[in-house]
Amino acid sequence: MKPYPWLASVWHRLAARLESGNLAHGLLLTGPMGVGKDDFTKAFVQYALCLSPTAEKLPCEKCSSCLLFAAGMHPDFKWVGPEEEGKQIGVDMVRDLASYLTLRPHTGSRKFAVLSPADQMNSFSGNSLLKSLEEPPPGSTLILITSRESALLPTIRSRCQTWSVGVPERDIARRWLATRLDNAEQSELLLGLANGAPLRALSFAQSGMLEHRRELWSGLEALAQAKTDPVKLAAQWSSIGAGTSLYWLGTWVTDMVRLKFAKEPPLLGNPDLIDALRLQAQGWRADRLITFAAQVARAQRLATTSVNRELLMEDVMLGWAQLRAA
């Protein structure tokens, strides 16, 4: 597959490193969610393992290596991630990866292992990974992918060569997204809701996320008007998904803070809700909004652990109700 158009320059720079034999043993690919880091990495590893890459520095898709890769059976490629969404990458998984890297490549001179999202490692698995970065086996490349670089141990970050990717220019993202939507007119709204990340915008359209968002917002308004209670709303939001619910709540609260300090903020994550958000923000003092925004951010981090998500949502909903009543 070709790299997404907004990632082409990173692709060619990495390909040049590979071609010259200067590809680092440890790579850290970092950037916001929804810009295609996982897809990019899979495609690049396929290219690196390809036996007959094209003149355009792409995998040929035909050689035995490419066919093995497409079938998910390439012996020189290993992908490690949480067993379930919200779970951590445990120390046993990292040890297994380290053992894999010590084996000689089967089909060429190099083998690859990927950890994604690398920020899901706990301190034990992170420390276990250090040896593979400090003493990389010959011919091995370890790629870490993250949207939260600061969550990685400093000792891990310092031992990797960092490649950063960002959201594309809006026109590029809009054109790409419009060709993949049944309703191209939604591309601008979806990109705004996804903070400019094209793949996240596409996933919103394909997963019915806009409908979930409307349901969540209606519940929040009902709570503000005392038409429902925090525990009932927390159960409803948990059924939709703690990660999804907290993501939207985080964007709404952030927009409310912006509206507290500027009548027409230059940037809003939910421009279609500006009037409703402004109305909600009127019931808050700015300092209380900022306090609640911090609570939501903490809850988002906790939602990626083994915490009871319904209790987590109850705590957040009670925080919203109590702060509004204060």
Description of the molecule:
The protein is built from 15 helices and five strands. The protein is of the alpha/beta class. It has three domains: 162 residues, P-loop containing nucleotide triphosphate hydrolases (Rossmann fold, 3-Layer(aba) Sandwich); 37 residues; 118 residues, Zinc Finger, Delta Prime, domain 3, CATH 1.20.272. A five-stranded parallel sheet has the order 2-3-4-1-5, with helices on both faces. The longest helix has 20 residues. It is globular. It starts with 7 loop residues before the first helix and ends with a helix.
Topology:
Blueprint (H helix, E strand, L loop, with lengths): L7 H13 L5 E5 L6 H13 L14 H7 L6 E4 L10 H12 L8 E5 L7 H12 L5 E7 L7 H4 L3 E4 L5 H9 L8 H7 L4 H9 L2 H16 L5 H11 L1 H20 L12 H8 L4 H17 L6 H17 L1
Parallel strand pairs: 1-4, 1-5, 2-3, 3-4
Helix pairs in contact: 4-5, 7-9, 8-9, 10-11, 11-15, 12-13, 12-14, 14-15
The CATH homologous superfamily name of the largest domain equals: P-loop containing nucleotide triphosphate hydrolases
Shape: globular
Helix residue percentage: 40-55%
Span between termini: 55 Å
Q: What string, H for helix and E for strand, traces the elements in order?
A: HEHHEHEHEHEHHHHHHHHH
Largest sheet: 5 strands, parallel
Content-based structural category:
alpha/beta
Q: How are the strands of the largest sheet arranged?
A: 2-3-4-1-5
Nearest-integer average pLDDT: 90
Q: How many domains, in number, for the residues? A: 3
- What's the total helix number? 15
The CATH topology name of the largest domain reads Rossmann fold
The whole-angstrom Rg is: 22 Å
Taking pLDDT < 50 over at least 5 consecutive residues as the criterion, the unreliable ranges are none
Strand content: 5-15%
